[in-house]
What we know:
By secondary structure, the protein is an alpha+beta fold.
Amino acid sequence: MKTKASKWMGAFAMSALLVGCNAAEENTSKNEVEDEISAVEQQENHAHDHNHDHTHVHAEDDSAKQIYAGYFEDKQVEARELSDWAGDWQSVYPYLLDGTLDEAFEYKAENGGTMTVDEYKNYYEVGYKTTVERIVIEGDQVTFTDQGQELTGTYKNDGYEILTYEKGNRGVRYIFKLVEPTEGLPMYIQFSDHSIFPTAAAHYHIYLGDDRAALLEEVINWPTFYPSSMDGHTIAHEMMAH
């Protein structure tokens, strides 16, 4: 695999959209994205943890644990284990590139969306961009397949962070740290899947890098993974439901 210095920067960023970049570089990246997508959508920004219209219910106490994703109190947030993301996962980025997801962008544009089809596609292309094709999570082992090359590391729980965005909505990043530094593997994994308590993820957005704090600032590039058993057409229809 690539060297540690270049691998994750190449895998999860577009030119200036590099995880771990300084504040000035990040501002420049956002300006570049604004040139590609509408000002209205950039203001909404998906944020990206995530102002989707999801309602989640904790099975143990339906009345006490029902929350609206993006708007919740700190006391509602619960710790989670890596097992919530166990499974075999595929990147949706190849489906965007081959046109499979176009029907989802058309649906969004025609049903109350704030952008054209092309603007949606550009927006998600920035968000989904990655060279990692597959992630397999078993126990505390995480295996990344990047451009056909596999590398596995052991990750331990490193807590979570509650983030508040300019629009006022909020998100939670669940964080796991590499136990033994390994060339080619990210030191930190941060998951966002619209949930704030233990539950099996249906899909997730992932942030990978070596700087924990800088990674929390990333809201433009959010590689997204669905179960490898799903085909692109099914994923597109899942996107329409969000």
